[in-house]
Amino acid sequence: MLLILRSAARVFCAKGYEGASMRDISRASGVALSSLYYYCRNKQGLLFQIQMTAFTEILARLAPRLAGADDPAQQLRALVRNHLEYSLEHPDEMKVLAHEADSLAGRERKAVAEIKRRYYRKAMEIFEALEAKKRVRPLDPRVAVLSLFGMMNWIHTWHRSGTDPGAEELGRAIATIFLDGVLENRLAARQTAARPARPVAAGERARRVPPMAAEAPARASS
Amino acid sequence: MLLILRSAARVFCAKGYEGASMRDISRASGVALSSLYYYCRNKQGLLFQIQMTAFTEILARLAPRLAGADDPAQQLRALVRNHLEYSLEHPDEMKVLAHEADSLAGRERKAVAEIKRRYYRKAMEIFEALEAKKRVRPLDPRVAVLSLFGMMNWIHTWHRSGTDPGAEELGRAIATIFLDGVLENRLAARQTAARPARPVAAGERARRVPPMAAEAPARASS
DNA sequence: TAGTTTGTAGAACGAACGTTCGATCGGGAA
DNA sequence: TTCCCGATCGAACGTTCGTTCTACAAACTA
């Protein structure tokens, strides 16, 4: 079964979800076409299990690393490092995650959206803790955090494992760009107060709580 | 014909290249299925024309804006602004660009890869000019520039035109994060020399010139 | 031993796919 | 009028798709 999921991830990654046929997966895994349906209800079920497993694993790995770092900046570095390590360890699954986010529908789509949202919320909380502790630029926090995810999730489009830096150096670079780009660091005064750098209209922060996506409609199926 | 391309972009965006059928495009454009083949050789030809047109337009818009700004930092802001404006004006085409980068094959794939590469080189040159003028962190320039593209190209996955900021504010935020994240701005001394912040082994920069991607193999077609 | 479960596989289903073919239509050229 | 040519279309071709059905072999249960 693990073999099937891994083969399916490889095929989905190489040809896209719609472009990959169950016969391709059968060939890649060495399991007969009809036998695939013993392990999953659907082609969609395969994609679902791949995505769900990946997000679950990322979150599971993240938790202890966050617990080990109490400074928000360090926590953010840990999140980036964790994301990138998984990314480079499982490039196929990661590409499927980023590429085929909209290929699911119905209940399964909802489930993946929810765990993805949990992940995003965690990053957002860290960023808010950072805002509370350090002086942060007058940026929309949603834009900032999603830009960070952008840097991380774009990597699979250009990274070549032989010649490009590994997770450690990559993570250091991206986390540094983000932190120094986001922190108000022009002069000495390191503030301890939670005061945001820009006066914020009442409710402006709260209004933006439902984030990441109001869950875009699934790709039309017909 | 423009109608066909626009409809095709909308359909490709909504269902993915492989998931979209020529019949879908026929329905969306109001042009009979067989008539589509009067304007393009292939389904692939449609995707090719969409991608080529988009990149050409982005580059065409970029040139005058770069000419209007001589400071590398301002040029970089112009590039970001230009990219984001096109992104929000043509979200469908942009999603197709980011999502279906690997769906082409053969000659057409090569052509798109080359113009994309031209775009990347332009960004790289600006970054190198920045390095020559300002003090820059010891970062792999390839990683830095591609992270910037990551922030920009990820936007289409989360941006909702009604509630999220427009190109101007978005561009300002992303360019600021990038510039302040990349520039060595901790203390006063603003250097004019081209000296990189970190000693660089001879040839290290030159070795990395072939960038963005050594052109990954196309998705297997069978 | 007999019966049930677990895993595998071949063959086939109807539907949808990309693409081609030949016919038709309208308007400028002779 | 006659001819022609760019543009459009319905119908069909052969292929491949996701999925189901049925059968069969080994392994465990009683």
Strand fraction of chain A = under 5%
Total number of helices of chain A: 10
User: Which value, in Å, is the CA radius of gyration of chain A?
Assistant: 20 Å
What percentage of residues of chain A falls in helices of 4 or more residues? 55-70%
CATH homologous superfamily classification of chain A:
Tetracycline Repressor, domain 2
Biggest interface, chains and residues, is:
A-B, 47 and 47 residues
Tally of DSSP β-strands of chain A: 0
Quaternary assembly: homodimer
As for the number of domains of chain A, it is 1
Q: Could you tell me the mean pLDDT of chain A? A: 88
CATH topology of chain A: Tetracycline Repressor, domain 2
Terminal CA distance of chain A reads 30 Å
Q: How many strands, which pairing sense, and closed or not: the largest β-sheet of chain A?
A: none
Describe what is shown at a glance.
The structure is a homodimer of 222-residue chains. With 222 residues, the first copy, chain A, is mainly alpha-helical. In chain A, 64% of the residues lie in helices and 0% in strands.
